[in-house]
Amino acid sequence: MEKEAGPDAAAVRLDDPWYEAPATGWGEPDGAGAVAGDGRSMSVEQHSPSAAEIYLEVQSSPAFREVRRRYRRFVVPGAVAFLLWYLAYVIAATTAHDLMARPVAGALNVAMVAGLGQFLTTFLLTWAYARHARLHRDRAALELRWETQEMTRGAGR
């Protein structure tokens, strides 16, 4: 994003290729609004796939399924483990008063250590998620995005 100076200083210009994409075909009957990139009407023989068709094609592609599989392989176990850890903390805090009140060091007891552990695991899980995304998903997802962008550019012509 980049802010522009001048009379429209509050306007924000998005440097995103998706921002410029025209939304043609919305609410129009079949065949209406089909215009080539140079302004000529397209005939049925020149039909290029619509953006919806392109997105459905990408969604059914092996590359997209692989990105989703990698995402789920990290997120599902991570979410389950974190929720179990959180529930164990809450259940222990409400039912095992003697255990949670046991001193660890000075005024620091098991409940305080476990509570601070909740914060620590939140930060660790966030770091692990960002690292996993960077190493295992971002490049493949970016390649899919650029392929889809190129296909949608061709659809507008």
Task: Describe this protein with a few key phrases.
157 residues; mainly alpha; two-stranded antiparallel sheet; two-stranded antiparallel ribbon; 4 strands; 6% strand; rod-shaped
How would you describe this structure to a colleague?
With 157 residues, the chain is mainly α. It has a domain at 48-155. Helix content is 60%, strand content 6%. It contains four helices and four strands, in the order E-E-H-H-H-E-E-H. Strand 3 and strand 4 (108-109) form a beta hairpin. Helix 1 crosses helix 4 and helix 2 (62-95) packs antiparallel against helix 4. The chain starts with a strand and ends with a helix.
Question: Can you lay out the helices and strands and say which pair or pack?
Answer:
Elements: E1 2-3, E2 12-13, H1 51-59, H2 62-95, H3 97-101, E3 103-105, E4 108-109, H4 110-155
Antiparallel strand pairs: 1-2, 3-4
Helix pairs in contact: 1-4, 2-4
